[in-house]
Amino acid sequence: MRITVNGEALDVSAATLAALLSELDYRGAAVATALNQDFVPKRERDKTPLREGDCVEILVPRQGG
Amino acid sequence: MLSGGKAVSGADPLRLYGTELSSRLLAGTAQYPSPAILARAVAAANAEVVTVSLRRESGGSRAGQSFWSLIRSLGVRVLPNTAGCRSVKEAVTTAQMAREVFETPWIKLEVIGEEDTLHPDVFGLVEAASILSREGFCVFPYTTEDLVAAEKLLGAGCEVLMPWGSPIGSGRGLNNPYALRSLRAHFPGVPIIIDAGLGTPSHAAAAMEMGFDAVLSNTAIARAGDPVAMARAFAQAVAAGRLGYLADPVQPRDMAAPSTPVAGRAFSDLARA
Fold this sequence. Notes:
The complex is a heterodimer of chains A (about 60) and B (about 270). With about 60 residues, chain A is mainly β. Chain A has one helix at about 15-25; strands at about 1-5, 10, 30-35, 40, 55-65. In chain B, the strands form five sheets. Chain B has a three-stranded parallel sheet. Chain B has a three-stranded parallel sheet with strand order 6-9-10. In chain B, strands 1-2 form a two-stranded antiparallel sheet. The mean pLDDT of chain B is about 95.
């Protein structure tokens, strides 16, 4: 299935957002997720299915002003 | 011991959404030469609040996790931002994401309306602030000196205002002192933090002398030749400016007024040539 993750097209096998984080090796990391520009809380990631063409954002803590 | 000024005896805490802080200098965490210098600068600034952001991680790096570990080791509060967001939707979603990762309802809300000046889009800002306030966020809106925008932000649920001194990163200081004084005078009970554009410690001192409650500095400290020394200089300037404000400064006047007593001056009985 082809989706977009952080602006890049990726072929992934994960069926849910939680599985995607595992597939991309984010397990255990402090990340926040959004699907098609809507925030998805951590507790809902394993109940959030991914579909062809979805846009996922995976954001991490960074420096800020 | 102070008398005749605005000072109360003893502590002079800054209250932001029910949280008492002793430091009136908030620090950004971006653009430092190294994480170690960032950590030393935050300590030198005596900052109790630092701003952070959420970003995509590039190329398989895990820099975000080490950055977050460093920030947690500093023992400070974080104020996540929505830097770079250009729509209400982007800003709201980013704020929701930040609340979960950083485990705080505090959000420095930026909705940017113009690229060259990073001018706040105050219309989008009010709308986003209203949404986020209803969702329980403590919104710190990055705004301009506009009085009506400020009024609407307060109406939207903001308990703090964060007007710019000048455009982000410009180092120009207080571009519009008249409007800033007016803002201060219109909202005497509202904590107002001068957020952006400060370049030197004297800019910070000037903001504090005008009665603003705190300043936030990032670029001026991080990009200085010696960020740790500059952090200390800003901390001293903020403290001096605050004390100067509380001590009730004299007002400027057009003509001289002798400071040395006139009475008793020698030769005062002689006619002047």
